[in-house]
Amino acid sequence: MSKADVSVRTGNIKQMNRLGPLLALTVASIALTACNPGMLEDGKHLQPIPAKIKDKIRKIGSTEKAPIYIRIFKEEAVLEAWKERKDGTYALLKTYPICAYSGEIGPKKREGDRQAPEGFYAITRGQMNPQSSYYLSFNLGYPNKFDRSYGRTGKHLMVHGSCSSRGCYAMEDAPIAEIYSLGREAFSGGQRSFKVHAFPFRMTPENMARNRNSEHFAFWQNLKNGYDHFQITHKPPKVEVCNRTYIFDPQGASHFDATGPCPDYTVEPSLLASLKTLRQKENIRFQQAALKLEQKVQEKEVETADAMVESQLELLERKQKISEGKNPDGFLAGLIKGNPAPTAASQAALPVSGIAAQSAPSASIALAEPETEAPSGGFFSKLTSAIPNPFGQKKQPIILPQTDVSETINTLPQPRQ
Q1: pTM
Q2: Which of 150, 161, 222, 286 is deepest in the core (most CB within 10 A)?
Q3: Is residue 242 part of a domain?
Q4: Contacts (Cβ under 8 Å, ≥6 apart) of 176
Q5: Which GO molecular function entries does the Swiss-Prot or TrEMBL record give (predicted)?
Q6: Could you tell me if 131 and 234 lie in one domain?
Q7: Pairing state of beta strands 137-139 and 128-129?
Q8: What stretch of H or E contains 196?
Q9: Does residue 343 form part of some domain?
Q10: 268 and 393 both lie in a single domain
Q11: Are 133 and 242 contained in the same domain?
């Protein structure tokens, strides 16, 4: 064999080696297509990123193949798509409406509870489903390590199209197609998995105060730590699980056991300082919001109680007037209703029970007689002296204790139920 032949043969072998992974991927794609002949026919999973979204990507300083990050807010029913910029931070690309989700705010705990998950999830290429029965979808990966540490069960929890949900987050078809295309291009650009962080609501101090009495509050405190990390850094936090608790951006430890005690770890000093500052400010806002809410509840209780007392007093006053042979609606109102006030003669001739029957209470009173002050020692004086009014004084406002800033930053929080 000549040197030229050897050279050509060697070059062909090198070229085949370089094409090997691509050929394997092509063969796998052909095999998958054979199992799902509709894949190449509808092409919905291959829809390009819309031109408007491409233009927005450029405006925020990102690229089509840059990594993506998704946040879900259940109560507000929105999904946010973020794109990574050149400096490694993420910018909001677009906010999509969630068409439907199952259940209420709060985590999913067991198969069949019809709750949409809350927590921190990672989506790999294998979790993308181009042949979904709900147009397009991707699997959230529930239960994750945190969920499993509590024995939570469930499967096939998706973000999908078709606007129909039984434990999933459902979108209209056009939005899920855009989101799917963003994920597909990010994988093509080298992102191994994109993060989906699902929250019950936007985790402001005011929203936390509004939900402070929920059974899920401790769990939401844990979620808020991850929310705060992103708010400060604009980078999706690294998420670990230990002591059945989410841990964010830990440094100095390599192994985390979801159910075991947490190893010693640290948080980057500047991030830790920013978290402390944020927590101090938000604790004040939380206490102020909680106090306002508590005062509103107390005011509502007092208003309801006052209305009940006034209603009872009005009823007693009518009965008192009827027992004295008077028209409880007043002379003019009685004429309008056809119930003139009784004369002395008719009063003597008509028993009290008959007057009471004529003077049935009415919801609409045109003109009423001015109320006269009850005589001293009379019926109402005896009534008010005998029955104390428990609603006479408002409750003292509840002063909420100062939240310990270090509980969720410097020390390990307790397991979250």
Answers
A1: 0.68
A2: 161
A3: yes
A4: 135, 136, 137, 159, 160, 161
A5: carboxypeptidase activity; transferase activity
A6: no
A7: antiparallel
A8: strand 193-199
A9: no
A10: yes
A11: no
User: How many domains would you assign to the chain?
Assistant: 2
Q: What's the pLDDT score for residue 6?
A: 44
DSSP 375: P
- Would you say 270 and 292 are in contact if contact means Cβ atoms under 8 Å apart? no
Backbone angles phi, psi at 120, to 5 degrees: -120, 115
Residues 252 and 180 in one domain: no
Tell whether 136 and 236 lie within a shared domain. Answer: no
**Residue 197, exposed/middle/buried by CB under 10 A (0-12, 13-18, 19+)?**
buried
Length of the chain: 417
Give residue 74's pLDDT. Answer: 97
Q: Looking at the structure, do residues 91 and 220 belong to the same domain, yes or no?
A: no
169, 202, 235 - which closes a domain: 202
Q: Which residues are catalytic?
A: 160, 168
CA-closest candidate to residue 175, choices 104, 84, 71, 78: 78
Q: Cα–Cα distance between 338 and 263 in angstroms, integer?
A: 86
What is the pLDDT, as a whole number, of residue 3? 47
Give the Cα-Cα-Cα angle 358, 361, 367 (nearest 5 degrees): 95
Residue 15, classified by CB atoms within 10 Å of its CB into exposed (0-12), middle (13-18) or buried (19+), is exposed
Task: Give a yes or no: residue 330 inside a domain.
Answer: no
Residue 193, strand partner residues: 124
Same domain, 132 and 216: no
One-letter identity of residue 407: E
Which range marks the domain in which residue 289 is found?
203-322+384-417
State residue 210's pLDDT score.
Answer: 96
Residue 305 has what pLDDT? 84
Measure CA 405 to chain center: 24
DSSP secondary structure letter of residue 251 = B
Last residue of a domain, one of 202, 221, 252: 202
- pLDDT value, residue 112: 92
Tell me the CA distances in angstroms from 213 to 64, 113, 216, 218, 340, one per residue in order: 43, 22, 8, 10, 56
Peptide bond into 143 cis (omega under 30): yes
In a domain, 354, yes or no: no
What stretches in the chain show pLDDT beneath 50?
A: 1-4, 6, 8-9, 13-16, 19-40, 345-384, 386-417
pLDDT of 338 reads 57
